[in-house]
Structure formats: C-alpha cells, structure tokens
C-alpha cells in the first residue's frame, strides 16, 4: 500500500491521417474532428484527446508486476476490478454489482455485472476471475501483489497455492463468483486489501499456454483488458496512448483518446495553464504554484487529505541500523514539523506512524518521539555509531516535496554529526538498488488502501515490497494477528498495539502525510479527484464541457 499510497501520463498519438495528435506534434495542438464517433451503446465519443499527467513512469504494463502506484494509474484504465474505494472509505461496486459475506465470515459471493466484454469483443465471465486468481497464486508465476491472495483457502502465508484445485475460488455461474477463506475474515479486509487490486485477466488469451509463461508473454506489449480504454501504443518511460472502449459496460467514455503522459512536477502548472495537460492524476502540484493554480478560472483545483504516508527506510542488512537506539535517534533528529510547515505550507500533517490521525484505526494514545537533536546525538554515541562514515540516501525523482525533504533531513542529521550523501534516481532504478542493498537509506511512500494492516507488507520478511531487507518479523506478526480478526473492536486493539510497537522500535522513520494538490482543466467535468487516492479515476464518467 506502498501504501501509500503508492500514487503513479502521456503525450502520444496516431499519425494515421486523422485530426488527432501525431507522435511528433507539439503538446496542446489537438484539433477537433468534424463530428463525434458513435459508441455501440449510443453514447457519443468526441473525437478529441484528453491528457492525464503523472510525475513518474510506470515500469511495466504487466499489472501484477508493476512496482508502484504509477502502474496502477494505467491499470485502472485498461483492466477491471471487482470493487473500488471512495475517498471516505466507502466501498463502491465496479465489476461486482453486489456481494454477500457468509454468516460464518469464511466466504463471500459476488454478483457480476452482465454484458461485460473484453476489448476484443469476447465476454468476460466469472471463469476469467477464477483463471486470474489461480494464475497469480501459482508458484511458477512471479506476482508483486501475491501476498494479498493469502486470505484464500489453499494458499500459504505468501499467497502461493501449490494445488490450484484446492484454491478457494469458484465460478458459481458466468455472473457469480465465490471466494472461500482459510479462516473468518472481516468484510472490509477482503474488499480493500484483496479485491480492490484484483485486476481480471483474459483466460481466452493467457490461458492457452503454460501458466509459467504469463509474465514473459507478448500480451503485455499490447494488453487486452476490459476497462474503459483500450491500448493503442506507448513510448516506454514517456507516454501511453489509449482509445475509448465504446462497448464498455458502464458506458463509453465521452472522448476518444486518453493520453497518459509523464510530466515533471515543475511542469504541471504550465501544462495546465497552456492546455497541454487536462488532469493531474498522480503527483501533486508544486506548492510554490498552488496559489496560481487555485486562482486560475480555467482550472479546477482540490487539496485532498491522503491516507498515504512518506517514510525513510533503513538498509537492515547493515548492522548499524539493526540497533533500535540508532533508528530512534535518527527519528528524534529530524524536524518533521519544519517539513510540513516549510515545504508543504501546512498542506499535510506530521506522521507518527503509517496511519494519519483521521484514519479510523488511528491510535490516539500514541506519543511520538520529540524533536531533540542533542539527545539524539548522545544516543548515537552510546550506541557506538560510526560518525566518520558517509551514508548514502537515495531518493526517487519527481516528487518535489520528497526531494526537498531529503535536503532538510540531510541538514538535520548533519547537525548531530551524521554525514549523508543524497542521490536521486528514476523510480525503477531506485527500487532495484534498494532490493539489492545498494544504499544505506531511502525515501519512499506507501498507503495503497485503508486497511490498517496495509503498511505491514513493508515489514514482512521476503515480501517484494520490503525494500529495507528487514528479516525480523515481529512487527509484521502483530499486524497479522489483527488481519485474522473480523470484529472492529478486536482489530482496533491489535492495531493500536501495532502502531505503538512502530513508535517504540522505529523500524522506519514515518515522516509526513501530504495532502494531494490535484487539478484538472475546467473543460472537463465529473472528475472525482478526491477518489484518486485509491487509484479510482472513473475516466468513463469524465465529461467534456460544452
């Protein structure tokens, strides 16, 4: 959730003699066609382009092997999920129009929407969901999100099913699917931690060969989904062009082309003002530009409180950081309030743990470490910390507040005698370096869903999202206890304990919760910017203003 959240854009087009953008056209030179296309459901599809911006690139179109929310931005356009979450935490139907938890909390049955089609015209049925779950729990298939499947009967703690025939998923009919769990589970746990990111894959395409070949399939070069937009082409690392799926079961999008374009945060405001960008989908407007954006009548702006979190991680393969006293000293040396006040201009809050104070499971009794640099320096000396060594902190490019916060952290740590060298990398390179232990410290964010145990995956030994290379499972084990409960009060007690343990031991430095400063062109309406925090973009609902 890496999470937090996580959150993930393009300029590209066809050069086929139409009035749309060509690959080499300057941004914003989209011209209107003489008239709209007609979707098969009777809706008009305006022959124009809408450009959605993200500040960093997705690293693959393989939705089960993407490594961050930028990939989920793309996945939400191409593929279908059973449910999604609105900003206030409410679960809303998508592919599943209704669901029912069994009285013993050990299974859930979902009724699917009818007349759902894949982009190639084939029907999507419950059998596709069964295929997807069996494929993504197969030990021969690498799956970044596999641990989410470990609630199902027939899986181990890592979400692997050695025997697919014993897996807890069944197509009751073409429009009804049933999931069976190992043990009673809370409905919200299933909906948020599992089904919000269960993207359905086409069995009629990927089910023909050996399941172990799925990740290497050419399918991912031009994927066929069932979402509101179809794949057209991409320039890896730069842009992705999509076309409205006129047979989309929830109604065709109102415009023909959606371009997802990677845009540096510093260029977002100019892009919005001059018309190169229509929607900022992942990555906030720079705070220095926020007043300009809010005051522009051609732009609709929103500051949206987020459930995600930003954190500093330690490389636990380095013995220095295995000492809780060292980690706590680092936490006490960092002036987080200055980050919020100076860099974020109050558009956020200081983090005590992964959950913000408005989270329903937040432990209001938490007592964070106070900002006490003198005491922090003393603690490091007592721990035998090596002040002569220079420690490498790596930071992903694109998030301006995160990049600038690295400089403030560097200054704070220098004040207690800790030497920090900062290097920035693109997201994919940075994650590779972290996985291989090529740095001492790193800055990342998480928060992909509202489940209180979402953050525990970054503390789970062996999980691909455990970029700190942490091997001690004690923090994850506490969260896992809460994960197995289904009463709110019982779960709340466990997650209060979990949050307290994180403050006591500081396996990560929780920095801040940043409001999302999002905006879109006033030529668009019905854009649910408040829901973007959960990778819910609902692009089929967007309308071009008349």
UniProtKB/TrEMBL annotation:
Disordered: region residues: 20-42
Keyword entries, A-Z: Signal, Transport
Ranges for domain Solute-binding protein family: 90-457
Keyword DNA damage: no
Top-rank taxon, per record: Bacteria
Family statement drawn from the similarity comment of this UniProt entry: Belongs to the bacterial solute-binding protein 5 family.
Protein name listed in UniProt: Solute-binding protein family 5 domain-containing protein
Organism this protein belongs to: Gordoniibacillus kamchatkensis
């Amino acid at each position: 959730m890496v999470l937090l959240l996580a959150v993930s854009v393009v300029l590209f087009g066809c050069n086929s003699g139409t009035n749309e953008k060509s690959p080499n056209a300057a941004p914003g030179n989209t011209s209107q066609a003489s008239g709209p296309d007609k979707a098969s459901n009777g809706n008009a599809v305006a022959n124009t382009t809408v450009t959605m911006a993200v500040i960093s690139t997705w690293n693959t179109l393989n939705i089960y092997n993407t490594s961050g929310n930028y990939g989920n931005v793309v996945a939400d356009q191409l593929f279908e999920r059973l449910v999604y979450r609105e900003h206030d935490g409410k679960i809303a139907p998508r592919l599943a129009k209704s669901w029912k938890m069994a009285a013993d909390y050990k299974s859930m049955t979902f009724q699917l929407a009818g007349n759902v089609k894949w982009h190639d015209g084939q029907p999507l049925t419950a059998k596709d969901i069964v295929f997807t779950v069996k494929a993504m729990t197969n030990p021969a298939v690498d799956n970044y999100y596999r641990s989410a499947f470990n609630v199902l009967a027939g899986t181990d703690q890592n979400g692997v099913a050695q025997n697919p025939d014993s897996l807890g998923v069944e197509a009751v009919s073409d429009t009804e699917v049933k999931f069976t769990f190992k043990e009673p589970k809370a409905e919200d746990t299933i909906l948020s931690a599992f089904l919000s990111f269960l993207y359905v894959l086409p069995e009629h395409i990927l089910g023909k060969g050996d399941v172990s070949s799925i990740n290497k399939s050419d399918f991912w070069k031009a994927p066929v989904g069932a979402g509101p937009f179809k794949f057209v082409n991409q320039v890896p690392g730069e842009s992705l062009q999509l076309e409205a799926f006129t047979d989309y079961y929830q109604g065709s999008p109102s415009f023909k082309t959606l371009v997802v374009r990677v845009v540096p945060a510093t260029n977002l405001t100019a892009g919005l003002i001059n018309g190169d960008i229509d929607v900022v989908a992942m990555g906030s407007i720079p705070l220095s530009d926020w007043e300009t954006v809010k005051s522009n009548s051609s732009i609709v702006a929103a500051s949206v409180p987020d459930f995600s979190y930003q954190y500093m991680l330690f490389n636990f393969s380095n013995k220095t950081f295995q000492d809780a006293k060292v980690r706590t000293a680092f936490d006490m040396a960092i002036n987080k309030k200055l980050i919020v006040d100076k860099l974020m201009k109050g558009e956020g809050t200081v983090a005590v743990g992964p959950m913000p104070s408005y989270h329903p499971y937040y432990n209001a009794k938490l007592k964070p470490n106070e900002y006490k640099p003198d005491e922090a320096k003393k603690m490091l000396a007592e721990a035998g910390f090596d002040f002569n060594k220079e420690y490498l902190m790596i930071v992903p490019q694109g998030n301006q507040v995160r990049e600038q916060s690295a400089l403030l952290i560097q200054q704070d740590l220098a004040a207690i005698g800790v030497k920090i060298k900062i290097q920035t990398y693109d997201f994919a390179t940075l994650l590779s370096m972290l996985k291989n232990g090529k740095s001492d410290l790193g800055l990342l964010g998480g928060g992909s869903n509202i489940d209180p145990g979402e953050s525990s995956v970054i503390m789970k030994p062996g999980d691909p999202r455990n970029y700190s290379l942490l091997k001690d499972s004690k923090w994850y084990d506490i969260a896992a206890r809460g994960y197995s409960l289904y009463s709110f009060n019982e779960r709340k007690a466990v997650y209060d304990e979990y949050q307290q343990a994180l403050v006591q031991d500081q396996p990560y430095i929780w920095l801040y919760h940043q409001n999302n400063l999002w905006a879109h062109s006033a030529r668009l309406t019905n854009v649910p910017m408040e829901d973007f925090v959960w990778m819910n973009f609902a692009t089929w609902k967007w309308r071009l203003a008349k």
